[in-house]
Amino acid sequence: xxxxxxxxxxxxxxxxxxxxxxxxxxxxxxxxxxxxxxxxxxxxxxxxxxxxxxxxxxxxxxxxxxxxxxxxxxxxxxxxxxxxxxxxxxxxxxxxxxxxxxxxxxxxxxxxxxxxxxxxxxxxxxxxxxxxxxxxxxxxxxxxxxxxxxxxxxxxxxxxxxxxxxxxxxxxxxxxxxxxxxxxxxxxxxxxxxxxxxxxxxxxxxxxxxxxxxxxxxxxxxxxxxxxxxxxxxxxxxxxxxxxxxxxxxxxxxxxxxxxxxxxxxxxxxxxxxxxxxxxxxxxxxxxxxxxxxxxxxxxxxxxxxxxxxxxxxxxxxxxxxxxxxxxxxxxxxxxxxxxxxxxxxxxxxxxxxxxxxxxxxxxxxxxx
Length: 369
Prior knowledge:
Layout: H1 2-31, E1 37-43, E2 46-52, H2 56-68, H3 70-78, H4 84-89, E3 113-116, H5 123-137, H6 140-145, E4 150-155, E5 163-168, E6 171-176, H7 178-183, H8 186-198, H9 201-206, H10 209-218, E7 224-227, E8 232-235, H11 242-248, H12 253-271, H13 281-301, H14 312-329, H15 336-342, H16 354-365
Parallel strand pairs: 3-4, 4-6
Antiparallel strand pairs: 1-2, 5-6, 7-8
């Protein structure tokens, strides 16, 4: 009888342990629901792309390793986990692929725009992100770009950059300076986001194979384009960003895509003026101002923005030229009359002018090269 009783007790204990194990597993899975991470594993030099449920720190460290490993970059390029422009110019920095943008959308849907490091207890922060989200979701070029992707906009301090973008598979992450988000208008905020998307991955995705090849040829250090306005030349020197140069010079597809995206964003803002106090005529003007000043700075400095304060006069000349090109572009377009009215006035190169103040404040805060 004792033997049977012992066996019964052992069986009960075993059943209880199995039940407890399943219970703990169920709790763990519930907590981690949807937190899938994409990792790349090396096994005797074989590359495997696997889905793993791992701790956040492990994935973050592993992603840093991948982005710093040349063979990993080659593999990620082939599997479309890095954008072509980022791979080409080697602009992936350590840790730039944030752990939060490795989450796969648990419902399998795309087009979601989320925010991180926002103070939801701050009414102004909430009002701004709601306005930014509405504008982006109403901009045709951006919704088309996000048809198979989700976006995360994250506030993050970076002493070198005002904003950055990284694309990994179906995830897009834009990092933005908290200082800029807190001190600048919604118009200038979406202007910077327009740059990060429409100058880089959105434009890269729209380019044809022939256009990509042409950009590659024109990235040679001996290819120089004269800027008649300032009698300067603009060229890729290995330290600036080729995407920026193509987006700033007329006649390039990347230039036209950037311009069209800003236009669509301005139209989207006009259609939503009554839906948020942060979407108004002033902010539409700020969006266009941001576009002009960004592109003008690239032209005047050959995309060496740390030299911007020294070249405010040339930036103003380029700004006014871009303004003229914009007004020509608007002819016959939807909302032409209103957008002409909201287009910023010509600027001078004085440090105290709106252009001089904006460019100087950004240049002196970030060590952009």
